[in-house]
Amino acid sequence: MEPKNLPIKLFSKRGTQDERKTEAGGGGPQPSWLLPEDVLEARATEFRQSLGATAQSIAARRPERSFIPAVVQVTVREDAMAKSHRGEVGKIFNRKEEYNFIGLSEDLDFLVKVDSPEHVAFIDHNLERPLAFSIGLSAIDEIRPFQPRIDLPQDTSTPLKVKLVNYQDRQMNAQVESAFEQTLREGQVAYRKTRYTSGLTVFKLEHVRPDTLVTVQEFEALYSIDPMPAYRITLDELSSGLELPVKTPVAGQDYLTVGVLDSGIAPIPHLAPWLDARRYSAYREPEVDRSHGTFVAGVLLYGDELEQRSWVGVGEFKLLDATVFPRPGLEIDEDELLENIQNAVLAHPDVLLWNLSGGGTMECSARDFSDFGKSLDELQQRTGALICKSAGNCTNFVSAAPKRRIPISADSVRSLVVGSVAHSQGPDDLVPEGHASPFSRSGFGPNKLIKPELVHYGGNGGVTAGGRMKLTGVNSFSLTGGVVQQAGTSFSTPRVSALMAGLSHRVAGDFNPLLLKALAIHSAKYHPGLSLSPSDRLRELGFGLPSSVDDIIFNSPHESTLILQDNIVRGGYIEILDFPFPDVLLNDEGQFYGEVTVTLVTDPRLDGNQGAEYCQSNIDVSFGTYDRIRLRDTTKRTISNPIGKLNPYNLLLSSNYAAKFQRYIDHPFTAERQLRDDLGKYHPIKKFAINLQEMTEAHRVRGLTAPKKWYLELKGLFSHAAEAAAAADGEVLSQEFCLIVTIRDPLQRHDVYSSVTRSLTLNNFQHNNIQLRNEVNLNLRNTSGGPAPEPTTE
């Protein structure tokens, strides 16, 4: 492997030179699904009749609950879900300066708040004039009163998880919660109230009598009743004969602290010197078994040494023991577990990296994001922390059944979710090295979100001739300090946590979750022998296995990595018209060549009431060539930017590439290749890895024949709901992002690093090498206190 010792670079956009204004489009033709006049009138009459049921429900409110708004469910045809059409639908329901759309149901229906008889009359008056609202009415298929989802458990002893409608009004929600609590007290119902997020309060009800349950189901603001999910930690150890020297911190050296949200960490000799003096525990000592947490902590701190491989490249940081799970055999309800996690994280605001190797077994929804995931997202937004979360395990491989999807909690958007790949293959193991472990759950998350994002080594598994499950584990520590083996995504996750800690320690500056995630995902690759389609690779392994710390932060002379961190404000976008693509990368035909990897990680705006549209903001990235800069006529109404690109060619479009390269083929670039047509809007992470030589001949001639100029463009987009909420609050919408671009010469002929650096300087970009901290020298000793040899690596 060629040496890598040239630091990757940060660069900045050049102020107004690279800033553009978002331009308005033309009015456009009427939608093809616009209904004729007679059908519109019939539909309006039908909707008015349905609206009558809402009027009756408001009139029937008990006086003390008359303040509770009714909710109607509005089904909009799929081809009318565009933001402009939603605005037309909103005109029917929204009075002046109001926005009454309070969310999306799981079926992607709009939920609309109707707060009074006067509001009903306003809507009815609009429906009396169907031609004035022709687009909005044509877009609507059905209007009906909202009905809460009620899924009662068969076992009556199972606690109930109750959610109320979020009216997007803090004072209204507080009044509604108070009225619901009064109902519970009158029915003598034992309940527990937990704040999952700022907009989501969950009530856990226990031992509810049948007559009282009817009263609860009739509460006017009820959203849903479900069984309360429960969680537990399990661990089965296999003995290993490996002995390992003990590392100790260097006196006076500062170390990053990683929080371990688990079952507790035993102060064994290998771990005790690294334990933070602070700790958090939600349990009394008889309720604690530290086996699982100790194994996780061992992988965090000694992962490479335990396997005698340089997989991560670091392992020196303090550990904060946060015992949030009870011992095996004891279940914990979701609301209690989340409260434990919140208490631990909020009590230690200086700890910004957390490992969470635990979660439920219930599969996440294909459309709606889980309450657990939303809670983890808001906690990270509130604290600026990053949670590395396991993707979950299943044993379906024993019966040759398909893998289960990731569980609720692993659909957290802001968390970095980690699956497992096999580190080796034993006699009964099912998969070769580098393939997804048989027990590792697969994605996608809701709305086809890429989850897990990364994988790391967590073991292998198979079935013996007798039909019994067999696991090939990875190494870590038992409660007594011996080295044992275990398999699971619980133990691939701390390797990624260690990588994040190592990157954060090596890169100078404040803790930066966007940068850390982007660096790891940008470096991730698939095993070259992985014969899966691109979609299956993403589903099972996310973006792949990340590189070690040094491989991430250094380049070879034949490649150059540039990082751009900024934010995009609504109404503007970034367009760099002289991107520093190396002019030395020309082949004998006079065409540009090279491998390009582009990774974009954003901090999305999230709204827990918008169902599958939980992610409310998006950034699209384009990268490619154009012929020259052209002047534009800004006197025209729709033109705001005085310059633009002539004949732009976006090289990230999969349609430019030969079909055989869009599927799996045995080719050196297979481990890197990443192109996907359905990345979709509102995905916070996007990655492209392209080889320009894989373009079709016609596209190479048109898009790559010199002379060409190179551009990079980033355009932001916000949902209709986000724009309406921001307008009501006077907020200026913006999105933070981290973009990383690597350009590589696969033939290793040219000094790409120097060429890109010269171009940055020539085109007046501010740029600098990524700033690195000094190395840490560790004390290594054996358990008896004597000197020990350095661990071997390969």
UniProtKB/TrEMBL annotation:
Pfam families: Peptidase_S8. Residues 256-527 form the Peptidase S8/S53 domain. SUPFAM superfamilies: Subtilisin-like. This is S8 family peptidase. It comes from the Bacteria. One of its GO terms (biological process) is proteolysis. GO terms for molecular function: serine-type endopeptidase activity. Residues 1-33 are annotated as: Disordered.
